[in-house]
Amino acid sequence: MGMLxxxxxxxxxxxxxxDSTEIQTGAxxxxxxxxxxxxxRDCPICPELVAVPAGPLTMGAQTGERVATSAEDQVxxxxxxxxxxxxxxxxxxxxxxxxxxxxxxxxxxxxxLGDLQTxxxxxxxxxxxxxxxxxxxxxxWSDAKAYVAWxxxxxxxxxxxxxxxxxxxxxxxxxxxxxxxGDTISTDQAxxxxxxxxxxxxxxxxxxxxxAVDSFGANPWGLYNxxxxxxxxxxxxxxxxxxxxxxxxxxxxxxxxxxRVVRGAAFNNAPHTLRSARREREPAASRIDTFGFRVARTL
Length: 299
Prior knowledge:
By secondary structure, the chain is an alpha+beta fold. The chain has helices spanning 2-8, 92-102, 141-155, 164-172; strands at 23-25, 30-32, 49-52, 55-59, 75-79, 83-86, 158-161, 231-238, 256-263, 280-283, 291-293, 295-298.
């Protein structure tokens, strides 16, 4: 543990004055403008973060959006304060550092959906090739919670999972279209089952595995792979509609809390599932080869 704390303590804090459009953050007290996409870390083994601005949020599908569901009804709100969010989904290398430091055990079998014959999988061996720059998978909600608790203890900062509202907010980055870049999607933009088309979109490749977290382009706030690659756990309990969500970024902790909201979709999903408005749920104990997570931090 002493070696770990030594790693976390790198960087010399310096007094710095930020202007009214910036916040002070990071191990070296950098000035960062929320929304600029400028990354920072709290320690060398911590996830890279970007600061996102406060602002209005309309959750849910736009009128006429293809394959929208009743669970995607619209609610309006506003995120009151800037916060930080993982530039990428948590990587296998980052999760490995946590396991090495804490001895955390990922109890239970990891499954591949639709394949009952699959042998036991794990975050170390998910059934496809990964490097430490790929998103960690085979992670359940409790694993994700344990990781953010460890980051908080280690850094003295307030790490957590995103709320469902925050996850849609950072995915959209001010957009109202099905995907942050527009109304169509291609496998040059995201990792999903490209044999299926979305509306006027063309078909493409199906990689059948994760890609590195820095693949494709970042959205306007500097976040990568907010559509596809891996599902990401959020803090929220499942509720069958957006109605009742304040839209201010507060997680909903009432409803069916045996189920937790997941967002973003994964490499084996049809493209309509990757839409910004898409809501899904999964038992908190589920450990699946397409499930990972992204961190948030209070500023």
